[in-house]
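dude i think i finally got it to work??
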Amino acid sequence: MMTMNKIMTRLRKNGKGQYRLLGLCVFLSVLLVSSFAFMYFSHTVQEFLPEGGDTRKLCTLMMGVTVIGCTIFTVYGTSLFFRYKSREMGVFLALGEQKGNLAKALVKDMAKVILKYVALGIAGAVPMSFLIWKGFQLLVINTAEMAYRPSVLGLLVSLVFVLFLMVCVLVAGVRFMKRTDVMEILNQQRKTEMVKEIRPWTGKLGMALCAAGLLLAMAVPALSVRLFDFGMPTVWNGTYLLCVAGLYFFMLSAVGRAKKGKHPEKYYKNIVSVSLMRFTARQTTRNMCVSTLLIFVMLLSAFWGVMYYNSAFAGTDKMPADCAFHFPAAEEKQIGEEDIYKMAEDYQVDITSYEEMEAAQLMVRYQEKDFSEKTNKYFDREREKLASFVSASDFARIAGTTEEALSIGQGQYKTVVSDGYEPSVWITPDCLEEITNPVAGQAMTMTYGGTEVYDNMTTMSDPFLFVISDEDYAAMTSGLGASEKERMIFFDVKDVMDTYDFAEALQREYISRATSLSDHMTYYDAYEEQQALAKGEEYGYAGSIDISPENTQLTGDWKYAPYFSVLMKVNAMQMVSIYVLLCIYIAIISLVAIGIMNYVRSVTIAEDNRILFGDLERLGADREYKRRVIKGQLQKIFAYPAVAGCGVTLIFTVLLCYFNDMRFIGFEIAMIGMELGLMVLLGAFLYGVYRLSFKRMAEIVRL
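look at this
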């Protein structure tokens, strides 16, 4: 007796290709999301990414994008599967079979396929994530801290995604089985999605909406802050939706609009190809929009990864001193010139220059901007805290210049900034209003004399490190003891990248000599703590930190963290390699999805129109004409999303770089050039998929 299960089994054998396609979509989605989850939620990544930091937020956002992209990809594959199954289900309904029985049989039939591929996806995620991690580790950095250590949380996230994916497939199945019109189901494979007449301005409106959405979302918030001190509310980000709507209109015009124009012979020559696109206009438009968004995600992820990697090293390359550190002068017996030279001799390191200087901690009153979440407005406020001051002669000696070149007169100050510095919305170098000797109480109002560049010093004082004349320095530091002063040491070494062992040993020695005097967070200020305690308030930067060589966050958390160029490069590589890995992984996921979606869409068009191509042949169409029809289909499917995705990404990147600080710097221009290179590589990849799709379509229509 032939039961429903046996019938379904027989049908599954006859339609292996469609079941394999559905299984492939599920397998790839589970594999990619699970392997991403295993890496992102591994102990190594979670320990390296600071809690609440921007990097963690961006990685979490990327995780969400991955889930959304893979879900869309699977839902698309499911819709194609149900499109294929519609005829079979319609026949059963026409023969009198109950819809409930069919639904149960279909669920069981799909479950056998889906569960198998889900298991394969999860099973393959662990070795895949491990191999990607090890390959990246060997290519970028290979240290004990970068060992692959997956966590249970990664597996739980993977299982949650699997459940979510199965719910999406189930919902799609329920919608499919709720059809009541048997004839509609029977003709599902032949059903067209003709759209109303597309107006001539649709494509232009789409491009205008894309441009308006990006400009409103990126330019208005930046200009609002600079011109009106007003921060746009979070809901303003909804203006990005204008870009999405514009993208849809643009694609709809590209797919569904055709006119005779001034060359009607060209219109009639391509009428078959144009009509084929219009018969499935809505479905094709949605597919092309998803491909465009995936291209945007792919390019932006790769761009962010490389930009993050390069920016992490840009700062260290500009540092004038290979090694620099500062520490409280009072009581703390830190390493000095003799210790450093002795250790350099032990490690056979040549020190090419060595300088020391004194810095005084003076109380400053200055202006800065703050932001009110209640009013969404930036406002000016006056602030008092301690900042470091050095004499003009000492700064000239360290910076390798002369006092005459500094040109600092009495009553003037200069602000030390980094190379390429631009004032931010929060504070400017001319912010200083008054300085005060914290012991004697002597105050002085000074005038702004400009900036001096020395990157190593910019991290040694907040908001800035200031340079004043020798006469003013002597007057303002009168009566100060060692507790109000710091020592600063700067030196260079020969072949800096070969001095890792020396720098690590010196850093360990420096850390081991640190006392409670220097056990403070990065933005700790003794005067601010004193004022907070006097008011009975809690000081947010109070308390000790974990001062130990094993603390991977020490460089960013410690007020007196030392700077060693070689160690900073290695530490930066450890930090950014995690983010770069995740960015590149997102790009790979998007690229795979783009290739498969476009390939599947191409094959679907050929399968749905196989009879039409046979009719064309009987009407006298030669081989070349049919090839031209196929190419016309493929060119739109591949070219329009690629052009739109690359165009939107390029505009987004340019606006992002410009409105970040209202200018373009060399680094940003180089990154935009790199993005153009990525677009060329993307074009080569899509051309390869195009050739495969054309070959498969030609086989299906028997060219």
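The first helix runs from residue 4 to 14.
im so relieved honestly
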